[in-house]
Recover the amino acids of this structure.
């Protein structure tokens, strides 16, 4: 299991926002092209005033059918979902939708790289958890087992994401170590 | 240059919708995982009525910062923009935004596959045009050359996308031939 140095500098900012910022750094430095997908919205009514932009007057949030982020890094298709929790010791499955899990499995079957980025805000620790170890615990819930990922499991089967000045959630660093160089524990690939 | 059999069955349906349908077929048959990105919308005002869903009361369409579609096929990152025109002999560059072109170049630099799907509705013909031949003509506009892609150029440098019953815009067929097997004309790779 990787060491767990405390991460600094990311208090008061949501995980998603920090990932978006990290992606901007990756993009500007030519390291990776990864974007947040827009939130899907169903538009019901639109006004078209003269000489100005169309105004949406009635619309509803739709449930996303896939994940938060995707893109390309070094020829690899990257696809992930970000989750943060205030719980200290687990991430409940109620935070994760089955259609997202299905999408992530489909991605993996096509040779893409799919994972969760999970932050324990109270610990100020953020992990990359690949779809493989995740899916084993996820499937066990249907046999009556626990309906959450424990902190201990995430720490042992995932990888602590380092904080760096330019990329506050420097997950590409983990991808380099785990998916490209080979990883430091086999069961998490 | 590829032969140009007439394509049938796609009248009265927009290109984008047909691509979405083709993607559904690819997804259900386990062939590829490619989705349309949601249209980005800036939400200004939301009502939260009791016991029912949040209603967006004021919002505006935002300019998309990337392309229409992306995903993974056979380990390859796929990213493309769909354009259709009623013109018979050209696609004006006014239909294409510079930030989209920049995104497509960034994708290519990361080892992804990036292209346009261009339909001439009056001819009922749809082409896949890779970013490489496109960018040459695109760059020439800044030297005072033409500000459009001619039908002839698209036909010679691109690939006619076959219509099939299950995938009306069967662009994966072209990807197989051009990017995987090697293509039938070198300059379009
Ligand atoms: Mg999320
Ligand atoms: Mg388009």
């Amino acid at each position: 299991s990787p060491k767990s140095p405390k991460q600094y500098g990311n208090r008061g900012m949501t995980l998603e926002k920090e990932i978006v910022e990290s992606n901007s750094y990756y993009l500007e430095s030519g390291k990776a092209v990864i974007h947040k997908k827009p939130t899907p919205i169903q538009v019901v009514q639109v006004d078209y005033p003269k000489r100005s932009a169309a105004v949406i007057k009635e619309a509803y949030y739709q449930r996303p059918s896939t994940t938060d982020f995707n893109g390309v890094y070094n020829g690899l298709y990257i696809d992930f979902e970000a989750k943060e929790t205030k719980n200290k010791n687990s991430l409940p499955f109620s935070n994760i939708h089955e259609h997202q899990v299905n999408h992530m499995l489909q991605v993996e079957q096509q040779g893409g790289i799919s994972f969760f980025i999970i932050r324990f805000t109270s610990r100020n620790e953020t992990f990359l958890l690949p779809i493989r170890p995740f899916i084993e615990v996820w499937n066990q819930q249907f046999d009556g087992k626990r309906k959450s990922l424990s902190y201990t499991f995430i720490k042992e089967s995932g990888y602590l994401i380092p904080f760096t000045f330019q990329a506050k959630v420097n997950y590409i660093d983990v991808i380099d170590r785990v998916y490209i160089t080979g990883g430091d524990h086999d069961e998490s690939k």
Q: What stands out?
A: The first helix of chain B runs from residue 15 to 28. The pocket of magnesium ion (ligand 1) is lined by residues A 68, 81-83 (CB under 6 Å).
